Amino acid sequence: MELKQNLLEDYKKDKIIETNNETKNFLIERDNEIFKLYQQGQILQGYKVISKLPKTIKIECGDIPIKRRLYVKYDEEKKENINRYPLDEELGLKKIRKNWNKFKK
């Protein structure tokens, strides 16, 4: 049996992977809990779940790719859709506003 050369580095890498996996599972579980509350009619009345869209959450230990649900409701007054990502809201993530006009010629 050989001695390991980078025992602490290997341990640190394993712990980072473990932490990222735990965090990812926590976020997926929370998105599912939000969806159950929605299905029970306790939150987000008037909204419809459209899809699950990808998002990369950046934490100290690295990037965590997940898919979270998009909820949409049509606003009759403004004549536009209101998009909500409840998981993003709980995490305190700000909406990214894209100016698509700058890409048009």
Topology:
Blueprint: H1 7-39, E1 48-59, E2 62-75, E3 80-84, H2 86-91
Strand content: 25-35%
User: Which strand order do you get reading across the main beta sheet?
Assistant: 1-2-3
Shape: elongated
> Looking at the chains present, what oligomeric state does this protein adopt?
single chain
Low-confidence stretches: none
Question: What percent of residues adopt helix (DSSP H or I)?
Answer: 25-40%
Main pleated-sheet profile: 3 strands, antiparallel
The number of distinct helices, counting runs of at least 4 residues, comes to: 2
Describe this protein's structure.
The protein is elongated. 5% of the residues are buried. It is 37% helix and 30% strand. With 105 residues, it is an alpha+beta fold. The protein has two helices and three strands. It has a three-stranded antiparallel β-sheet. Strand 2 and strand 3 form a beta hairpin. The mean pLDDT is 91. It starts with 6 loop residues before the first helix and ends in a 14-residue tail after the last helix.
Structural descriptors:
single chain; 105 residues; alpha+beta; 3-stranded antiparallel β-sheet; 2 helices; 37% helix; 30% strand; elongated
Task: Briefly characterize the structure.
Helix content is about 35%, strand content about 30%. It is an alpha+beta fold and about 100 residues long.
